[in-house]
Design goal:
The protein is α/β, with parallel strands linked by helices. It folds into 3 domains: about 140 residues, no CATH class; about 100 residues, NAD(P)-binding Rossmann-like Domain (Rossmann fold, 3-Layer(aba) Sandwich), CATH 3.40.50; about 200 residues, no CATH class. The chain has 15 helices and 12 strands. Strand 7 and strand 8 form a beta hairpin. Helix 4 packs antiparallel against helix 5 and helix 9 packs antiparallel against helix 11. The longest helix has about 35 residues. The protein starts with a helix and ends in a 6-residue tail after the last helix.
C-alpha cells in the first residue's frame, strides 16, 4: 500500500510537469505564429509530433532518473537544482531526437528555448504549491496514516522530531505511548501521551484511530515487543519495529536481503540502481571500443620510436589491485627502461608522495619517448582493453600496485569497493600538485559515496581537457 501511495504521488507530480511542458510548448507555438492554426499550417503534423517527443522524453527522464526522490523534503535551492536538471535532460533529449530524425534544421529555436524555460518556471512554482498543500493538510487529511509511537521517555522527543522532519506527505503522528514512565496526559512536541502500560496501549489502539505503530524500544528494556507486535497485527494494525543495533551509521544504506535461508539486513555505503550500473557499463563498452581504435593508431605511430630508443617489449604489464582486492594485469605502452621495477627500490628515498604511492618528477627510469607519451597520456591507452574486459572502468579510482595494497590500513580499502578507472577525481584535480596519499583517499571515498553517471561524464570531459593541455602523472 505504501509503495502504491508513493507511486500515486510520483504520477501526480509527473502529470503536473506534463501539463507544464504542454502549456509551454503550445504557448510557444502561439507566440511564434500568432495562433495554433497558423502554426499547424506552417509546421503541419510536426506540430504535434514534436510535442509528443517532448512528452516521451519527459517520461523517460522520470523512468530512468526518478527526479521526485525526496520531493517533500526539498528546500528551495534543492528544488531549483532538481528542476533545472530535469529541464536540461529534457532539452538535451529533444535535441538528440531532432538530430537523429534529421528534424533539427526545421525546428524553431524560439519554441525549443521557450518550452524549456517555461517548463522550469512552471515546475518551480507548481512543485512548491503542491508540496505546501499536502504538508499543510496531512494532519487532518483522511488519506494520511495516523501513527502511534511506542518508546521510552528519554527517546520520545527525539523520535517524534526525527519522523516529523522527514515530511512524509501521508503520515501524521497522533499519539505517543511512553513505556518506562507514566506520562499520560503530557504533550511531547505537541503530541499527546496516551498510554504507558502494555494494557493501556491496547485499550487506546482498540478504541482510537491508529493506522500504524512505530516501536522504538531499547533492546535491554523488558517491554514485551514480540507480544505487542502480534496483538497489534491481530487488530490489523501495521507495526514498524526499530532495531537499535542497526543504528550503526546514519550514512549507511540498509535493505532487507536473504542469505541462503536466513533473513538479514544488509548495510552499504551507497546503493546504486541497476539502471545506473547498466548505463555505466554501456558507457565503458562504447568508450573502450573507441579507445581501442585510437590505441591501434597510436601504437603504429609511437611503437617504432619506443623500440628504437629502448630495446624490449612494446607493452608493459603489471599486477594491480582492483575491486575489493581482485588482482588483474594492467597494460600500458612501455615508457621506462626494462629494469625500471628493479631500480624503483633504489629511488624510494626520493619519493615525492607522502604515503603509500610512488611519484617522482624527474624519474631517471623514464625514456625520452616515455616522457612524451606520459605527458600526452598515450602510454595509458592500452588500458582501454582492461575497460572492455571489465577489470576497469573509464572513471574510477587509481588501482594500486600489489606492494602498495599490502601496506594499506583498513579504511584505505574503501577506495577499492568499486572498479578502478582509467581516470578519476584525483587525475582531474591537480594530480601534479597533490603529494599526500591520505588526501587522495579522501577524494576517492567522496567520489564513491556521491557517485553518479553525470559526475563520471564531467570527469571524462575534464580528462580530455587536461590531456589536450598536457599534465604529468604517476605510474
Amino acid at each position: 500500500m505504501e509503495a502504491t501511495r508513493l507511486q500515486m504521488q510520483n504520477f501526480l507530480i509527473f502529470l503536473l510537469d506534463l501539463v507544464g511542458v504542454t502549456v509551454g510548448y503550445f504557448a510557444a507555438v502561439w507566440l511564434r505564429f500568432g495562433n495554433i492554426e497558423t502554426g499547424y499550417t506552417v509546421m503541419g503534423n510536426d506540430t504535434y509530433y514534436r510535442w509528443l517527443i517532448a512528452i516521451v522524453v519527459l517520461m523517460m527522464i522520470y523512468f530512468l532518473f526518478r527526479p521526485n526522490r525526496g520531493f517533500f523534503k526539498r528546500k528551495f535551492i534543492e528544488e531549483m537544482r532538481m528542476n533545472l536538471q530535469t529541464v536540461i535532460l529534457m532539452a538535451a533529449g529533444m535535441a538528440m531526437v531532432a538530430f537523429l530524425i534529421q528534424d533539427a534544421k526545421d525546428y524553431s529555436r524560439f519554441i525549443y528555448i521557450f518550452t524549456s524555460g517555461f517548463s522550469f518556471v512552471w515546475m518551480q512554482i507548481t512543485h512548491r504549491v503542491y508540496r505546501k498543500y499536502w504538508l499543510s493538510r496531512r494532519k487532518d487529511h483522511s488519506y494520511a496514516r495516523k501513527m502511534m509511537i511506542i518508546t521510552t521517555s528519554d527517546h520520545a522527543e527525539e523520535v517524534i522530531g526525527n519522523i516529523m522532519e522527514e515530511k512524509n506527505w501521508d503520515l501524521w503522528i497522533t499519539s505517543v505511548a511512553v513505556v518506562d514512565k507514566d506520562m499520560t496526559g503530557w504533550l511531547i512536541n505537541e503530541i499527546p501521551v496516551v498510554a504507558h502500560s502494555y494494557r493501556s496501549i491496547f485499550e487506546y489502539a482498540m478504541r482510537s484511530v491508529v493506522d500504524e505503530v512505530f516501536l522504538y524500544i531499547p533492546m535491554d528494556d523488558e517491554f514485551p515487543i514480540a507480544m505487542t507486535i502480534q496483538n497489534l497485527e491481530d487488530m490489523g494494525i501495521k507495526t514498524n519495529l526499530n532495531i537499535s543495533q542497526f543504528q550503526i551509521n546514519e550514512n549507511l544504506e540498509r535493505s532487507l536481503e536473504k542469505v541462503g535461508p536466513y533473513e538479514s539486513v544488509s548495510f552499504s555505503g551507497h546503493n546504486v540502481s541497476f539502471v545506473m550500473l547498466m548505463m555505466k557499463r554501456a558507457m565503458d563498452i562504447a568508450g573502450g571500443l573507441v579507445g581501442m581504435l585510437i590505441t591501434a593508431i597510436a601504437v603504429i605511430i609511437v611503437g617504432p620510436l619506443v623500440k628504437l630508443e629502448s630495446p624490449g617489449p612494446l607493452f608493459f604489464s603489471q599486477k594491480r589491485v582492483g575491486k575489493n582486492g581482485r588482482i588483474f594485469k594492467i597494460y600500458k605502452i612501455r615508457s621506462m627502461y626494462q629494469d625500471a621495477e628493479e631500480r624503483k627500490k633504489e629511488l624510494m628515498a626520493q619519493n615525492e608522495m607522502d604515503g603509500l604511492m610512488f611519484k617522482m618528477k624527474d624519474d631517471p627510469r623514464i625514456t625520452k619517448v616515455g616522457k612524451f607519451i606520459r605527458k600526452t597520456s598515450i602510454d595509458e591507452l592500452p588500458q582501454f582493453w582492461n575497460v572492455l574486459k571489465g577489470d576497469m572502468s573509464l572513471v574510477g579510482t587509481r588501482p594500486p600496485t600489489v606492494d602498495e595494497f599490502e601496506q594499506y590500513s583498513a579504511y584505505h580499502k574503501k577506495r577499492l569497493c568499486q572498479k578502478p578507472g582509467l581516470t578519476g577525481v584525483w587525475q582531474v584535480s591537480g594530480r601534479s600538485t597533490i603529494t599526500d596519499f591520505e588526501e587522495i583517499v579522501q577524494m576517492d571515498v567522496d567520489y564513491i559515496d556521491h557517485w553518479s553517471i553525470w559526475r563520471d561524464i564531467g570527469i571524462l570531459f575534464k580528462t580530455v581537457w587536461l590531456v589536450v593541455c598536457g599534465d604529468d602523472g604517476a605510474q
